[in-house]
Hints:
- Helix 2 (51-61) links the parallel strand 2 and strand 3.
- By secondary structure, the chain is an alpha/beta fold.
- The mean pLDDT is 82.
- The chain is built from 3 helices and 6 strands, in the order βαβαβαβββ.
- The strands form 2 sheets. Strands 1-6-5 form a 3-stranded antiparallel β-sheet, with no helix packed on it.
- It starts with 6 loop residues before the first strand and ends with a strand.
Amino acid sequence: xxxxxxxxxxxxxxxxxxxxxxxxxxxxxxxxxxxxxxxxxxxxxxxxxxxxxxxxxxxxxxxxxxxxxxxxxxxxxxxxxxxxxxxxxxxxxxxxxxxxxxxxxxxxxxxxx
Length: 113
C-alpha cells in the first residue's frame, strides 16, 4: 500500500482462516467485531450518518454466547482493523468501500487513516 493511503486492502489471511478453523474445533465461543467509519477523510466520500446506529443494532443481534467488540471512529485505523480481523471469527463493516472488478486486490474498505 502506498504510504499515507486512506484505504485498507482486505484479503483472506490463510493463517487467520486456519486459526479460526482450529478454534471452532475447540468449541470456543464465536468472536464478533463490528467496525465502523463514518468519516472517511477529505475527498474520500460523504460522511455516513447512520454508522453508529447500525453498529449498535448489529451488536444487539449478535447472540449472547458470542464475544462482541466494536471499533469505530478514530479507533477504526488500518492497524487496529487488521488486528481485529485476525482475532475474530466474524466481522460486520459499516463504511465506504471501493470495488475494482478488473483488479480485485485493489478493492478496499475506506478507513480514516
